[in-house]
Amino acid sequence: MSGSRIAWLSRKSIVVVIVVALCAIPLLTFSGCGSSTAVSIDQGKVQGEMTSNKVVSFKGIPYATPPVGDLRFMPPQDPKPWDGTLKALEYSKVEPQPLDDLTGAAGYTQSEDCLYLNVWTPKLDGAKRPVMVWIHGGGYSYGTANDPMYDGANLSKRGDVTVVTINYRLGPLGFMYLADVAGQQYAQSGNVGLLDQAAALKWVKNNISAFGGDPSNVTIFGESAGAGSVCSLLSMPAAKGLFRRAIAESGAASMLTSPAKATEMTQKFMQLAGVTEVAGLKSLTAKAIVQTESELLSQSPGTITNFEPVIDGNVIPESSLQAIAKGSASGVDLLIGTNLDEFRLLAALTVPAMATLPLNVIASASPQIQQSIATTGMTPDAIAALYKQSFPSYTDGNITMEVMTDSMFRIPAIRVAEAQSAKQPNTFMYLFTWPSPNKPDLGSCHAIELPFVFGNLKGTRTAAIDGNNPPKKLADILMDSWIAFARNGNPNSANVPKWNPYNTQTRATMILNETPKAEDDPYGAERQVWNALSNTSL
C-alpha cells in the first residue's frame, strides 16, 4: 500500500469513521384524540400508544422550533405550542446527511425540520422514574435516534425507567463554524448540534414528569460521537444542571477542533458550494448542502466527516478535558468505557489491508499519528515490540490494530476517567470484550455492544457482527448495570461482581463479557506507553 493511500489517517477521521452505521426514519402528524396514552406538556397535548410489551411510546415530539430559514446555523429556539392533540405515533424525518449503505438511513426522507425526540415509559403516572436520554453516534455527520436498534421499549420495561432518544443537527448544519467569516452573530454556529442536545435536555427537565420520569434524575448516555457529545456536555455551561449522570461508550473528550481549523473547513465548503457569504449558504437547499458535504468528503478518501464540535470560547469555552479536570462536572456521576478491538471495524470498513500493516508503515503515512507516537518518546517499532510482549502470537497487523485502538479510544477514555475521578468519586470504568461470533477478525469491535445496551438483539444493523443469536445473558448484564447506574449512580447489579469506582491508584475496571470480572488496570503496560498522551494532542 502506498503512503498516499493511507495518508488520510487523521485522528479526526479515525475516531468518526467507524461510527457510521447508525441511522433511521421519521414523520409527524396532529389530530384530535383522547385515551389513557395521552399527556399534557408545555406545548399542548400529545398522544402516544401502547407497545407490544406494554410500554407506552411517543415518537416525533418537537423539542425546538424547526431550525429553517433565518434559524439555519443559529441556536435552537423553544418549541411552539399547538392546538388540539399531537399524534406522536411515527418517527420524525431523519436529519440531513450523506447516505450510503453503511449509514442505515439510506432510503429515508430527510428534512432540516429534525429537532424531535422519542419517549418510552412503563406507565403514565406520578412515579418518578430514572430518565435515560440517548445521544446517537455517527461522527457528527450521520445517524438518527430513530434507528430501530435504539428502540427504548425493552430497556424501559426491564428497568422501570423512562427512555428518551433525541435527534440533533449534523454535519455543516450542526457544526459549521461561521464566526470568523460572518461575524459574532454566528459565534455559536460551530456547536449548534450540541446546543440542540442541551435544548432537548431542557425539554426533558420541563416535561418528563408528565411521562412518569424524574427530572432531577436524568442520565445522558451515548456511543462514539454520542459519547463525544456526552463529554462535551460535561464541560458546557449551557448544559449545566440538566443531567445528573453520564455514560460514555467508545468516545471521549477528543473529538473537538480549533476555530482556525474549523474556519479553514468552512472556507473550503463555501468555495465548493460556490458562495461567498452566509446569505449564499442560507439560500442553498438542505439537499445542496449535503451534496456539497459529500463532494468535500470525496476530496479526502477515507474521511467520513469534516465537521465536529469547536472549542469556540463560547459554547465550549476550553478543551472539554481541561474543563472536566477543573471540575466542570464535579456533581455528575460517570460511567465510561470502550471495546477491546474498536479499531478493527475501521480497518474492515475502509482499507482492510491496514489490518496486515506494521505500525511503522501506518505512522509514516500520517503526521497526526506520528505526533501522537512522538509524545511517548518511543519509535513505532519500539511501541510495537512492547505490545508484542503482551500479544506474542499476534501478527504485525494485529499489533497495529491494538495500538490504534488504544491511542484512539481506550486512552482518551481513561484520560476522562482520570480527570473526573479526581472531582467525583462515583466514576466507573468498563472494558467490553465479547467478540463477534460471525466476524472473528473484528473481535470486540466498535458498536458491537449497542444491541445489548437496548436489549434489541434481533434484526439490527449489527446482526452481521453480533450474529443471529446474541447471548441474552450479556444483554441482561449491560442493561442491568446501565439501569442501576441511572438509578443511583452505581453500576453494581446482581449480574456482575463487585464493581469498584475508578481512580488512578487502582484503576478498577469491569471486564464485560458473558462472565464479567473485575480487574485493576487491565493492559496496564500498554496504558503506560501513552502516559504523556492527552486528549489535547489527539
Report on this structure.
It is a single chain. The protein is of the alpha/beta class and 538 residues long. The chain folds into two domains: 7-26 and 50-83 and 93-325, Rossmann fold; 337-537, Alpha/Beta hydrolase fold, catalytic domain (Rossmann fold, 3-Layer(aba) Sandwich), CATH 3.40.50.1820. The protein has helices at residues 11-17, 153-159, 171-175, 179-182, 192-207, 225-235, 259-273, 278-283, 286-298, 320-325, 343-349, 359-365, 367-374, 380-390, 396-421, 450-454, 463-466, 472-488, 524-529, and strands at 29-30, 38-41, 44-47, 49-50, 56-62, 85-87, 116-121, 129-135, 162-166, 213-223, 245-249, 333-339, 427-432, 508-512, 517-520. It has an eleven-stranded mixed β-sheet, sandwiched between helices. Strands 1-6-3-2 form a four-stranded mixed β-sheet, with no helix packed on it. A hairpin with a 4-residue loop joins strand 14 and strand 15. The longest helix is centred in the last third of the chain and has 26 residues, at 396-421.
Main sheet: strand order: 4-5-7-9-8-10-11-12-13-14-15
| Amino- and carboxy-terminal Cα gap | 25 Å
Per CATH, the architecture of the largest domain is 3-Layer(aba) Sandwich
Gyration radius over CA: 22 Å
Mean pLDDT: 90
- Count of domains: 2
Short description:
The protein is an alpha/beta fold and 538 residues long.
